[in-house]
């Protein structure tokens, strides 16, 4: 019963025609686009805190917009500035999430490459005596009778 009364109040307020019930949210677009890009890159898996932070900031900015719309007034200069700051911070959070996700993906791929490449160094020459394979018939590298470099 209370929900019906609350809804009817919203409907009657929206029918006044003076202001739209839903404020213009285009100011949030840079932040929401950056967040969407991070989410598409699976940032929720690799950088959940940064993603959550961006979402909280966008939500707070949206709440400020809706509060002004419900009060049937324009944004105050302080509210506009706060929204601008929140949007900028949310964009940075989303970029952080994307960069962290990309870095972790690169590290994962690097680890996989290192794992597949992990062979003992001697396997590359086929030698087991630690030499580089320059055999002079006397063992070792064959470089023992050479003059030192620079001398």
The helix-and-strand class reads mainly alpha
E-strand count: 0
Query: H/E order of the elements?
Result: HHHHH
Radius of gyration: 32 Å
- Tell me, what's the shape? rod-shaped
The number of helices is 5
| Stretches with pLDDT under 50, minimum 5 residues | 1-15, 138-149
Overall mean pLDDT stands at 79
Amino-to-carboxy terminus distance: 99 Å
Strand content is: under 5%
How helix-rich are the residues, as a percent range?
Answer: 55-70%
Instruction: Report the biggest beta sheet as strand number plus sense, adding barrel if it closes.
Output: none
Biased composition (Low complexity): 110-119
Protein name: DUF4398 domain-containing protein
Region (Disordered): 110-151
Give your account of this protein's structure.
The protein has helices spanning 2-14, 29-40, 43-46, 48-70, 77-117. It is mainly alpha-helical. The chain has a domain at 20-106. Helices cover 62% and strands 0% of the residues. 15% of the residues are buried. Residues 110-151 are annotated as: Disordered. Residues 110-119 have a biased composition (Low complexity). It comes from Salinisphaera japonica YTM-1.
